[in-house]
Specification:
Chain lengths: 110, 110
DNA sequence: TTGACATATAAATGAATATTGATATAATAA
DNA sequence: TTATTATATCAATATTCATTTATATGTCAA
């Protein structure tokens, strides 16, 4: 079986994974999975300094893993489903391809 | 709804994502998804210098995304399904939690 | 044993990143 | 207007990471 040309380029995926390569940012995604939060809520929950949190949020924003909505002086951050789904999809494809080829790899099966 | 305590700690996930935060390493995983490969095959496919490739493989090994099998002077690298599945699972949980809470977020629905 | 080959490790360097502290902006309240 | 609050950015430093070159290890063949 030939591997199909992947929908997401490895470079793009790596970029998104780099944004996930930090404990606080994974935490942020997990919190935002529960719904939109303003920066101050995130700061309170995570116990990060405000500039540091702001920096992490920017990193996540830049690769499209979260989105912002401004409301007065509050910034409300929310999960960007598509972005997360893209990373998820890359791993999904790897697992599926792997499962498919290991099935094939066992002679006599199927 | 309350978020369940995640099965994989954010720190561990971040560590694995860090290993994925490189174009070559994502490529390696994609190749290995098709089955075991020896280092020289990977080197030929990816066009990386031998020491650089070796370094990337070590990074992937250290976080449990690939495994090695020695055979004479050849090292055969293979995908470590569990490791990949763990990363996949973290994103999966985020997406599921998100979907669940956005459904709840729409009043009148369900 | 010698040599060739496959792979790993070490050291060095430059680039990218995290973190902090200080400051800026922008919106609201007094 | 001035003060206050929420957030972002900037500059500086420390740390981590990718890459290269050189060298080491281990295995096989002659």
């Amino acid at each position: 079986m030939k591997a199909a040309t992947p929908a997401v380029k490895s470079g793009d995926a790596a970029l998104a994974f780099r944004a996930l390569a930090d404990t606080s940012r994974v935490e942020i995604l997990r919190i935002l999975a529960g719904g939109e939060r303003c920066v101050c809520e995130l700061a309170a929950t995570l116990g990060l300094s405000q500039p540091l949190l702001s920096h992490h949020l920017r990193t996540l924003r830049e690769v499209g893993l979260v989105r912002v909505r401004k409301e007065g002086r509050w910034m409300h951050y929310a999960l960007a489903r598509e972005g997360v789904a893209e990373c998820h999809g890359v791993l999904d494809a790897v697992l599926e391809h792997h499962d498919a080829s290991t099935r094939l790899g066992r002679p006599g099966c199927c």
